[in-house]
Amino acid sequence: LWERLSKKEANDVETVQKSIVHHVTTTLARAAYNMDNFSAYQAVALSTRDRLISRWNETQGQLSKADPKRVYYLSLEFLLGRSMDNALLNMGLKGTYGKGVEQLGFNMEDVIESEVDAALGNGGLGRLAACYMDSLATLDYPAWGYGLRYNYGIFQQRIVDGYQTEYPDYWLNFDNPWELPRLDISIQISFGGHVQSIQDEYGVTRHNWIPAQSVQAIAYDVPIPGYDTENCNNIRLWRSKPTKTFDLTSFNEGNYEKSVEDATNAEKITSVLYPNDNTMAGKELRLKQQYFWTAASLHDIVRRFKKSRREWSDFPDQVAIQLNDTHPTLAIVELQRLLVDEEMLSWDDAWEIVTKTFAFTNHTVLPEAMEKWSVPMFEYLLPRHLQIIFDINLFFLQKVEKKFPNDRGLLNRMSIIEEAQPQQIRMAHLAVVGSHKVNGVAALHSNLIKTTIFKDFVDYYGEDKFVNKTNGITPRRWLHQANPKLSKLISDTLGSDKWLKDLSLLKKLTTKIDNAEFRKSWMAIKRHNKVRLAELIKIRCNVEVSPDALFDVQVKRIHEYKRQFMNILAVIHRYRTIKSMTASQKASVQPRVVIFGGKAAPGYYIAKLVIKLINSVAAVVNQDPAVGDLLKVVFIPDYNVSVAEVIVPASDISQHISTAGTEASGTSNMKFVLNGGLIIGTMDGANIEILEEIGEENIFIFGCLAHEVEDLRHAQRYRGVPMDPALQGVISAIEKGVFEDPKIFQPLISTLTVGKDFYLISADFASYIAANQAVDTAYKNQEEWSKKSIRCTANMGKFSSDRSVKEYADDIWGIKSYPIVDEG
Ligand code: 26M
Fold it and tell me: N6-(pyridoxal phosphate)lysine: which positions carry it (predicted)?
């Protein structure tokens, strides 16, 4: 009976409509005549959720029985964006739901746009986690993500008087249909207190952590359906709550206020996502988040392992744990503690299990982003974990000393503890020592970490521990969903949609490059996408831009190393050039719309000034009649995943212009090129591999190389290399007050002082201007441009996150796909 009643629902319009109407009248308790787009969204979401739940149950049931090795992806950020369109497309239900919704009197696009983004991430690292979850599910890998369920995601950005202002992102206002609360799954997590050391009956010293406080971790599951498969994976997000005893103690003592305060403190742990990207804040609450999350996740993983009644030595054959940056590194220490203190394994047996289980991905070489925790703060929160870290360090340094005797400098450099005032725990060193594989995220970056931050570790462990896994993006969201017209053209041209699961098939588009008809369709889709973006710009910025101009885009977190400052300086240069032209000279200028977007960390003063400068320049340029449509500048506020889905398909050229050696990979570069956008960029991160795939004729490269950076900085500092003259002119214009009160921008201009220009804007400026001119010239030849555009898309197969995830599975995790059988 159970089996018959739980049979899979059919994929026909009437079944779908029945389910939607059912949710309107029951779950939402609404009448059909009283519906707006948002209620329609809610009903469709609830109906979609029903389908997700049955797939989730089927998948997790079959996996529990078979119990294959699983991978756990630990990430403090999952930047999922919207879920509805993606879920419907992946489950093959979009067509049916689309029809059903339209017949009920709604516009599917409006319904889809009623959903708020799940913005539980800052940028690249969090979106990468989301793309990897999509690929893991699509490739039928048994994989779970673990993260935190923040009440507030990344802040919302508004521009007030040209300045960024931050507003809370309370995304759970209207309930979240994409999560399944597991209120029965509750894990107690402890903090503080002290360590009791006693000798057991064999004379072995045992350490017992007596914590001072504890909170509960409650599980919320987010189903992740694969594309064109029954498989449905899971992201488990933890929410903090006060424990019952915790809030009752004070209450029973008659201190009601104290009990409420304690409860609030417990809930604070998962209250807000830290809005820093590539910088380390060192805040106690952040450390609490990290321990809360890693302890709850490990407890859950260990509980699942124990159900199988295997030996502890089998643990690494059942479990692979990937650390997304150093944020979850405490998991290494927590597993060692569980095995030694609670499961009574010997230190060495435990440590072998730990190091075989973990692998670590590094996402940055910027020194300010390296996580370090002050020893006194750490000891106060996690006294037993501190002891274990010191022991890990002691045994590690003893081995280093054995291999390279009498090298104090080396021991100091490699130590997990930095000898500062106070001492600091270097989380990256701990992550390397506790993992069996360490990877970078693009070829250049993986080589850089081997020769810089982890050089000593390569000498000690050997090359094999350090590997490259070039990032990738999911073509399902970033082409099929975001650019449905291009997706359809590709499928029609290739005769199938198989390319969505094997992106290398795009290569066949090359045969169509000389087909004028095809090129016309290709460019018409680009124009359609530009019209859509122009509408968004009109609404958000109140600026009218022509879809016939060249759309030039730089959207990403605002950071000095990404050099949005250099971009706006070049825009000023362009403005000044146009202003100096005669009417006949102007006639040959390629019209351009320069589009910026991105958030600055709220405490990052210089980054926020860059936003102000962009808006000040936009205000002057956009209303200058001498310029007209030749140049428009816009800053699109509140850049996020759903805005990116509109911007990416509409770009002609996008800017990936970090100082060589600073951008670990970049992933938006891949999204733009996959959508037939060209790029202007430096020899940095994945730009280099994109160049290798698409050919140097199809990318605009400029600037110094990574190995030249050190010398250039040195020369600037000690030989006083003068500032680039074009740049000098631009700065003079700002200083003369062409764009608002120049006093405002003085701190920004100071970063360009000879000897202080750390990101080498001056050194790269001339070649940057030249590259931009080459873009203008190339764009004027629309036929050649369209060929380049098609070649770009055709050669992007490598950058599917399916390829990345397969490499991780084969070379690091040792897991196999486990297809779920449809028993519907
Ligand atoms: C650290 C400490 C305290 C608070 C926040 C952080 C923190 C948060 C996010 C530090 C770094 C964070 O993200 C870094 C990041 O997004 N790196 C990017 O990762 C992408 C995926 O690998 C790469 O493509 C980008 O090049 C890299 O900048």
Answer: 671
